[in-house]
Design goal:
The complex is a heterodimer. By secondary structure, chain A is of the alpha/beta class. Chain A has 3 domains: about 170 residues, Rossmann fold, CATH 3.40.50; about 170 residues, Rossmann fold (3-Layer(aba) Sandwich), CATH 3.40.50; about 170 residues, Rossmann fold (3-Layer(aba) Sandwich), CATH 3.40.50. In chain A, about 35% of the residues lie in helices and about 15% in strands. A 6-stranded parallel β-sheet of chain A has the order 3-2-4-5-7-6, sandwiched between helices. In chain A, helix 2 links the parallel strand 2 and strand 3. In chain A, helix 3 crosses helix 18 and helix 12 packs across helix 15. Chain A is globular. Chain A starts with a strand and ends in a 23-residue tail after the last strand. Chain B is α+β, with helices and mostly antiparallel strands. Chain B has 2 domains: about 70 residues, Alpha-Beta Plaits; about 70 residues, Alpha-Beta Plaits, CATH 3.30.70.1150. In chain B, the strands form 2 sheets. In chain B, strands 5, 6, 7, 8 and 9 form a 5-stranded antiparallel β-sheet that branches. In chain B, strands 2-3-1-4 form a 4-stranded antiparallel β-sheet, covered by helices on one side. In chain B, strand 2 and strand 3 form a beta hairpin. The chains are: A alpha/beta, B alpha+beta. At the A-B interface, loops of A face helix 1 and helix 2 of B. The complex binds thiamine diphosphate and magnesium ion. Magnesium ion binds next to loops of chain A.
Chain lengths: ~575, ~170
């Protein structure tokens, strides 16, 4: 068999993995790969304008499509620029593989030009990472990287490839299987334990399902929906779980946690049986941990054993893929019609109470004279197609989207939950648009966040990616201002965006379109127009500057302690 | 309740694995009391022994987080096992005319070995468990310890499990 270079082997390996899109940025240490990628017409390369954008784009691509996102960057500054993107994917368990160039093996450790200890820097924010020291190992390592990124609890993997490895020769053979003695995720839940959790659920009176991003990652929203409907159990989800259960279902309570709905937070506080599925009891969800679900038997289904009893002591854990576990639960339930009927009867008063809470304390905002951000989001929801993909930036824009954009299906909502990365939404939307060129992709942005990766406008224009960016422009780092207003005596220390660009002109300068909206009466037309325009559009909604997100649970307080409008 | 645990960790013998393990402890705020590491009979694997303290919940997390590392093959917590524990120390202690005999006497009682002698000092090597080493050091301290180094604890399960705590 003919020998090929490491760079060629890299491309062959991507082909074996079925990779069709790569996001990245070139530089000295990856020139060899770029030279080969130029001729690989079956792989579309997307040149972002910043390596952080490349990783977020790969991440958005992965969240929207369920496939592994791939990024390729150079050594040193190229690699360090990816760190925020990698950490974002890590916190939200997103399958991404990042390839970075590295100086030649003979130079490693010499403080060579554009050398950084990339593996050292990214060790704590990757699921795993590799430095390839021998071209012979390259195919196996790439195989392992994709395998580790996409299996078990998914996450980012980085592969650092020195320049001489790219130039070295290898007989390319792509392994069919991986052999990783220390890595074998548990996919099937323990059947006995599954029976025990069912008997606990069937004996409960006030059960609630609390589902997280794991449901989406394991493509288990159909199972979740069936299970909840079969047993008539109300459902709340985390930010990451939105879309995992249809928001138009009567059993839907809304999101829980710091900006959760009254009904969801009360349900979790009052429940006697909390069924956590693919969620990790994040502090933004639990509030004061000691008072979280104080009356409940807590059931926890998760593929990651470290998530179980990390923050909150769990009574009945099941380690396994949540889709598999719920399928097993449904199977066990198939012969239990009588018990199911009993449960449905028992929970009826509970459901009625929740209905009352939903009715009495719904999400609401006061209509004002200016444009209300919540109203903009409601209009986008009304006018965008049902399968539109929505990303957000971070801050109030993100929370209002989570509250007011009622997601009915999974993989439509892309947001940085765990790390809360401003600047995530726009490149993530670009990645999603690359995965689904024909669908509507919208970034609901803040005026602060959008400036953190605004350079990606050029990417959107170059590749004709018609992403719609709806800027909720309040002139503030709104979420931080809200905290200052509530907890720092209204002292707005450095949260005013006193100077921002003219977003309309800016978009136009890049060759995109811009629309400005200053009057509430124009919101609907502007959204309609933006959605119907070809190409990338920025819509600058000048909203009421000091609107706050409610409900809000002060940090560290129990979650039934909500500030309401 | 905070308890001392000896944990043995079988890992791939590769560059960077030690820093993954140590980074996990520092990154998550777990503490390492002692650490020893060397290749096993199979040169592709290494065994580490870490002693740490923490309550039950912390120890659960430490073990799960270790298991989550791709390069970690096996984690054993010895707390519920019957095991032998050894650590070696080297102590260089002042040996003036008045104290030379006393140093040797203490060394004898503990069955330490004299591994280096000078006109003003003895260097003693002693292996044992935590309690024995502590007592030894306490007795030598008044003599004047010049230098001191320890290997970190290593442990091995006893073949005959006579007093398994979990049985109690
Ligand atoms: C990279 C980064 N830096 C800082 C923060 C802290 N932070 C959280 S929300 C926020 C304000 C965001 O402002 P904007 O994008 O205008 O959104 P708004 O809250 O006004 O909707 C800031 C600064 C962050 N999440 N990410
Ligand atoms: Mg703002």
């Amino acid at each position: 068999m003919k020998k090929i270079t490491g760079a060629q082997a890299f491309i062959e390996a991507l082909r074996c993995e079925g990779v069709k899109h790569v996001f990245g940025y070139p530089g000295g240490a990856v020139l060899d790969i770029f030279d080969v990628i130029m001729d690989a017409h079956d792989i579309m390369f997307v040149l972002t304008r910043h390596e952080q954008g490349a990783v977020h784009a790969a991440d958005g691509y992965a969240r929207a499509s369920g496939k592994v996102g791939v990024a390729l960057v150079t050594s040193g500054p190229g690699a360090t620029n990816t760190v925020t993107g990698i950490a974002t994917a890590f916190m939200d368990s997103i399958p991404v593989v990042v390839f970075s160039g590295q100086v030649s093996t003979s130079l490693i450790g010499n403080d060579a030009f554009q050398e950084a200890d990339t593996v050292g820097i990214t060790r704590p924010c990757t699921k795993h990472n590799y430095l390839v020291k021998d071209v012979e190992d390259l195919p196996r390592i790439i195989k392992e990287a994709f395998y580790i990124a996409s299996t078990g609890r998914p996450g980012p993997v980085l592969v650092d490839i020195p320049k001489d490895v790219m130039r070295g020769l290898v007989q390319f053979r792509y392994p069919e299987k991986v052999h990783l003695e220390g890595y074998c995720p548990t996919y099937r839940g323990h059947r006995g334990q599954i029976k025990r959790i069912l008997s606990t659920i069937l004996k409960s009176r006030h059960p609630v399902i609390y589902a997280g991003g794991g449901v989406i990652l394991s493509n288990a929203s159909a199972e979740l929906t069936r299970l909840a409907r079969l047993l008539n159990i109300p459902v709340t989800t985390t930010l990451m779980g939105l879309g995992g259960f249809p928001a138009d279902d009567p059993l839907w309570l809304g999101m829980l946690g710091m900006h959760g709905t009254y009904a969801a937070n009360m349900a979790v506080t009052e429940t006697d049986c909390l069924i956590a599925i693919g969620a990790r009891f994040d502090d933004r969800v639990t509030g004061k941990v000691d008072e979280f679900a104080p009356r409940a038997r807590i059931i926890h289904i998760d593929i990651d054993p470290t998530s179980i009893s990390k923050n909150v002591q769990v009574h009945l854990p099941v380690v396994g893929d949540c889709g598999n576990v719920m399928r097993d639960m449904l199977e066990e339930l198939s012969g239990m019609e009588r018990e199911i009927e009993d449960l449905k009867r028992t929970v009826r008063p509970w459901i009625e109470r929740l209905e009352e809470w939903k009715r009495d304390k719904p999400l609401r905002y006061d209509k004002g004279t200016g444009i209300k951000p919540q109203y903009v989001i409601e209009k986008i929801r009304e006018l965008a197609p049902e399968d539109a993909i929505i990303s957000t930036e971070v801050g109030q824009n993100q929370m209002w989207t989570a509250q007011y954009y009622k997601f009915n299906a999974p993989r439509l909502f892309l947001t940085s939950g765990g790390l809360g990365t401003m600047g995530y939404g726009f490149p993530a939307a670009i990645g999603a648009q690359v995965a689904f060129p024909g669908r509507t992709v919208i970034d609901i942005a803040g005026d602060g966040s959008i400036q953190m990766n605004i350079q990606e406008l050029a990417t959107a224009v170059q590749y004709r990616l018609p992403v719609k960016v709806m800027i909720i422009n309040n002139g503030y780092l709104g979420m931080v201002r809200q905290w200052q207003s509530l907890f720092y005596k209204g002292r707005y220390s450095h949260t005013s965006m006193a100077v921002s660009p003219d977003f309309v002109k800016l978009a136009e300068a890049y060759g995109a379109h811009g629309i400005r909206v200053e009057d509430p009466g124009d919101v609907e037309d502007a959204v309609r127009k933006a959605l119907s325009m070809e190409g990338c559009v920025f819509v600058d909604f000048k909203v009421e500057p000091e609107e706050d997100v409610y409900p809000m649970v002060p940090a560290g307080a129990p979650i039934n302690n909500m500030l309401l409008v | 309740m905070n308890e001392r645990h000896a944990i043995s960790i079988l890992v791939d013998n590769q560059a960077g694995v030690l820093s993954r393990v140590v980074g996990l402890f520092s990154g998550r705020g777990f503490n390492i009391e002692s650490l020893s590491v060397a290749p096993t009979l199979d040169p592709t694997k290494s065994k580490m022994v870490i002693t740490t303290t923490g309550n039950e919940q912390v120890l659960e997390q430490i073990k799960k987080q270790l298991n989550k590392l791709i390069n970690v093959i096996k984690v054993v917590d010895f707390v519920d096992k019957d095991y032998v524990e050894r650590e070696m120390i080297l102590v260089k202690v002042k040996a003036k005319e008045q104290t030379r005999a006393e140093v040797l006497r203490i060394s004898d009682i503990f069955r330490a070995r004299v591994v280096d002698v000078s006109p003003v000092s003895y260097t003693l090597a002693l292996t044992g468990d935590q309690g024995k080493l502590r007592a030894f050091i306490e007795l030598l301290t008044p003599m004047g310890i010049i230098d001191f180094v320890r290997t970190g604890t290593i442990v091995m399960e006893r073949e005959m499990q006579s007093r398994k705590r979990s049985d109690q």
